[in-house]
Amino acid sequence: MFDIQEELKKMPDNPGVYQMKNEFGEIIYVGKAKNLKKRVKQYFQSKNHIPKIQAMIKNIAEFEYIITDNEVEALILEANFIKKYRPKYNTILRDDKQYPYIKISVQEKYPRIYKVREVKKDGAKYFGPYPSAYAVNEFIDIIGNLYKLRKCSLKLDGTKKNQRPCLNYHINRCTAPCMGNIDYKAYREEVNKAISFLSGGEEELIKTLTEKMKLASEKLDFEEAAKYRDQISSLKIISEKQKIVSANTAIDQDVIGSAIGIEEACIQIFFIRNGKIIGNEHYLLTNIENETREEIISSFLSQFYTGTVYVPKEIYIETDIEDRELFEKLLSEKRGNKVSVKVPAKGDKSMLIKMIKKNALEILEKGSQRIKRNLDESLEAVNELKDLLNLDEAPMRIEAYDISNIQGVESVGSMVVFERGVPSKSNYRRFRIKTVNGPNDYKSMEEVLERRINRGLDQGDLKGFNKMPDLILIDGGKGQTNIAEEVIYNFGLNIPICGMIKDDKHTTRGLIYQNKEIEFKKTDKVYRLIYRIQEEAHRFAIEYHRNLRDKTLFKSELDNIENIGEKRKINLLKKFGSVENIKNKSVEELADIDGMNIKAAESVYNYFRNKTVNK
User: Fold this and answer.
1) What is the dihedral angle through the alpha carbons of 78, 79, 85, 90, rounded to the nearest 10 degrees?
2) Which of the residues 97, 272, 340, 516 could staple to 253 if both were Cys, CB 3.0 to 4.6 A apart?
3) Which DSSP state fits 245?
4) How do residues 288-305 score in pLDDT, each as one tens digit?
5) Cα–chain-centroid distance for residue 261?
6) How far is residue 482 CA from its own chain's centroid?
7) Quick check: pTM over 0.70?
């Protein structure tokens, strides 16, 4: 069991982020702290909490933490985790205000430097996000003035655009490319210097400004010295730029750090997707006697990525390994395009690896016994499940499936994987339903399982599906379970299948196995395991829905039709299943749908008829 008082004694005095969990392992609260030990202790020592926090404390069964280098990193990491997990007791920010970035428009002939709050795939260079908008403005002024980069929004092609330059030219803060005063190559050299600095060279600039400040002070030019002092102060604030978000939002990345003890090692991975850390996992490696760090990292890469479903575009490690090119070739074949294994020497990834190594060391020194205890309890639950279902062997690999849809349309399926009773997130999989129109959970489940088994039986499959489950769990009752059993039987396989059923409050109640219902006590370890699996499958499917909405994938031709808004579009798709079916309907049939009227029905009818005529 997790002993809260004992674990509190082991906590570090570093800044970082902590996660409070309930008895089912769900994250119910995420917070940041300048001093992790002091902050987390306050929850269990003080009695003057507001009612919401008092209720949260009663539900804390365990906690975890991640060490950061400073409060700025903790702030950003806390925000990312709250957005990801949406914990029950956190206040959820609805407007999702973005932190500022610095943008250099390198896609323009004469790039400019300015502040933005959104990263676009427009070919520009983005740096950040940063903790302070004021500091960013100061930073842009310093960099722009040092390298004389323009700040105006003129579209320049190298020819003279203005009759006279602006004030920035006259005060020596711009070289006036709008007047054709500077050679293209010379301007680009200054741009490259600015990019190099923003990529990790702030210490060099601080050193240069410090020398200038001292020189001005020696000349008794205290006004000039004060100006340099203020610039240095702004640079020190901005040099705390957090390492939690990557400037390159187009590339998925894994960043790996390690800590090595006498008998075991801890490897920690941070998963960066769409520029943000979406999660992290840690692994303990045993039997490491007389092995070097390079050999341990190489062993981990081999075992982890050969069994994972998804391989990112870039993998960052702390030290080079002998078989790096071989790994790149293997993983590139598995992904289907080029995968790079990199060792960063400086910049954000290097600093992030340092943070990860620090956390891995913390886990190794203070958390390895707790991790082992949790693993042992999870394995006990798996063995309880074996006895409960009367299986020949313990189900070491459990796959759970859930079907969900967005307001009755756009069905999706999720597959989560638990190995030895713990989540194997690298093996998770999402399915976008292709052959089923409308909200038909039975047919959708049939399609998902058929696609998964087909991939697994395909000897050429390199995506991690060739490892079959020992047990399949379906979110649903007898109907969904019978469909799954039929699919497995048709493939000639013998995999046990259970349905996970809920009570009236939508909380896990038990299992259906071989048409018999099995209920659990909430104190049983096996109950906690099934609860976690069911909630994880549902969470993963809901997260996919959010991604579909965020990426505006839920679009159709109906969006182009006058008088058809979101509600009417959804009602039409619910009724007719697809745009193809809607095309063939009469005005009367269209007008009969909830929310529609004759005018809207005629708009739809005429849109598709005119489109046919114009072909």
Assistant:
1) 80
2) 272
3) B
4) 766 788 888 888 887 787
5) 30
6) 35
7) no
